[in-house]
């Protein structure tokens, strides 16, 4: 089974931004022949995924900055307009920093047509206190509402108690008495 890995040699964010722009335009580069070919068929989704899949979160952030500087356009908005379906959803989550991605996932889980407390719980309970603090700040900045308010509104009973406790420092030995 293979896995996606980040290349050991850092690539240039400028080159990646140019390659993404060309992929959006349907311009492909064929290295064996050293020429560009204009297909005019729209976005080359495979090229976009290939570029972003082989970069870590820091590199993707630098690519976004370079893309904005070069083309006066937000890369996330361009990705949103060029991609569709599950690929779009995955790539848009992928290009966010981890705390922003967590905020987006939890917001969608708590405010969708069907509330998915399992997804919200998985994200919240798998983070360290410092990650939760950063994630809560981003949640408010992105959505204008406190995470605690959304949990209070959507969760109930013991589930609400457990999720609420993850935002506060407490002695884990007290958990059984709190839940009961």
TrEMBL record:
Among its keywords, does the record have RNA-binding? no
Q: Which Gene3D superfamilies match?
A: Annexin
Which SMART domains does the protein's record reference? ANX (SM00335)
- Kindly list the residue ranges recorded as spanning the membrane: 33-53
Q: GO molecular function: any one? A: calcium-dependent phospholipid binding
Its keywords, alphabetically, are: Annexin, Membrane, Repeat, Transmembrane, Transmembrane helix
Kindly give the Pfam families that the UniProt entry links to this protein: Annexin
Q: Does the keyword Acyltransferase apply?
A: no
Q: Which InterPro entries match?
A: Annexin, Annexin_repeat, Annexin_sf
Alphabetical GO biological process terms: response to stress
Family, as annotated: Belongs to the annexin family.
Can you name this protein?
Annexin D5
Q: Tell me which species this is from.
A: Vitis vinifera
């Amino acid at each position: 089974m293979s896995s996606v890995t980040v290349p050991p040699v850092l690539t240039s964010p400028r080159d990646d931004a140019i390659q993404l722009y060309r992929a959006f335009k349907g311009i492909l580069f064929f290295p064996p022949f050293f020429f560009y070919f204009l297909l005019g068929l729209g976005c080359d989704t495979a090229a976009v995924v290939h570029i972003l899949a082989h970069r870590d979160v820091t590199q993707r952030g630098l690519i976004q900055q370079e893309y904005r500087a070069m083309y006066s356009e937000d890369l996330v908005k361009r990705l949103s307009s060029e991609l569709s379906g599950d690929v779009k959803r995955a790539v848009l989550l992928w290009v966010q920093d981890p705390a922003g991605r967590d905020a987006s996932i939890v917001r969608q889980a708590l405010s969708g047509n069907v509330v998915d407390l399992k997804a919200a719980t998985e994200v919240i309970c798998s983070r360290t206190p410092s990650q939760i603090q950063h994630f809560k700040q981003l949640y408010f900045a992105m959505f204008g509402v406190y995470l605690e308010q959304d949990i209070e509104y959507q969760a109930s009973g013991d589930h609400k108690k457990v999720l609420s406790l993850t935002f506060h420092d407490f002695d884990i030995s007290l958990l059984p008495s709190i839940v009961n």
